[in-house]
Design a protein that fits this description.
Elements lengths: L7 E7 L4 H10 L6 E8 L5 H8 L4 E3 L8 H14 L4 E4 L8 H6 L4 E5 L14 H10 L3 E2 L2 E4 L9 E4 L2 E2 L6 H28 L1
Parallel strand pairs: 1-2, 1-4, 2-3, 4-5
Antiparallel strand pairs: 5-7, 6-9, 7-8
This protein binds 5-O-phosphono-beta-D-ribofuranosylamine.
5-O-phosphono-beta-D-ribofuranosylamine binds next to helix 1, strand 5 and helix 6.
GO molecular function: phosphoribosylglycinamide formyltransferase activity
Enzyme class: transferase
Catalytic activity: N(1)-(5-phospho-beta-D-ribosyl)glycinamide + (6R)-10-formyltetrahydrofolate = N(2)-formyl-N(1)-(5-phospho-beta-D-ribosyl)glycinamide + (6S)-5,6,7,8-tetrahydrofolate + H(+)
Length: 202
């Protein structure tokens, strides 16, 4: 629960390692941070993100096709949990599932996603992980970098809230480029969440 109501209550949805969750959590612990992470949700019970949250006394929740075979029931359960935790802002950070229509309706304009390319370039269905960086290299782009955007019912299509440019270097592989972009993700995401949280409290 949020013991500091002056701060915006954030839920983070993760599927994998959770390095963006860690960056966000570190930022939330600074004295003047306008937000707190009060819930971490994952569809993957073995995700590094869930383990990190549990280690840091952040409430966690595992909700997946296994716990809720019916997508509508899963969507409804997410809304119920988000409301029970009085969540005001949702961040999907490496969350590999689509957010359902009920969550989208309940949190319209308050769900952020981080994507590892300069959207609208190299987004959309199937564009995640190494596929994104492979596409950047194949296109011969000289610039890449993460984007933070609002989540809608189409992959990577909502309003772009912020991005950070990262150079593509000669000899880059999808792995070297991904690593450079990830460093920028860890700067951009806390910056955008901080800014948006300040705006929500104004
Ligand atoms: C990041 O590259 C993010 O842009 C993408 O998935 C990756 C998640 O990494 N959506 P992590 O789980 O935060 O380490």
């Amino acid at each position: 629960m949020n013991d500091r109501p002056d701060r915006v209550s954030v839920a983070v949805l993760v599927s994998g390692a959770g390095s963006n969750l860690r960056a966000l959590h570190a930022a939330s612990l600074t004295a003047d941070s306008p937000f707190r992470i009060v819930l971490v949700i994952s569809n993957n019970s073995g995700s590094g993100g869930l383990a990190y949250a549990a280690d840091h006394a952040i409430p966690t929740l595992h909700v997946s096709g296994r716990t809720h075979p019916d997508p509508g029931a899963l969507d409804a359960e997410l809304v119920r949990q988000l409301q029970a935790h009085q969540i005001e802002l949702i961040v999907t950070a490496g969350y590999m599932k689509k957010v359902g229509p009920r969550v989208l309706a309940e949190y319209a304009g308050r769900i952020l996603n981080i994507h590892p390319s300069l959207l609208p370039a190299h987004g959309g269905p199937g564009m995640y992980g190494a596929a994104v960086h492979r596409a950047v290299l194949a296109a011969g782009d000289r610039l890449s970098g993460p984007s933070v955007h609002l989540v809608t019912d189409e992959y990577d299509e909502g309003e772009i809230i912020g991005h950070q440019e990262v150079p593509v270097l000669d000899g880059d592989t999808p792995e070297t480029l991904a690593a450079r972009v990830l460093v920028a993700e860890h700067e951009l995401l806390p910056m955008v969440v901080t800014e948006l949280s300040r705006r929500l409290r104004r």
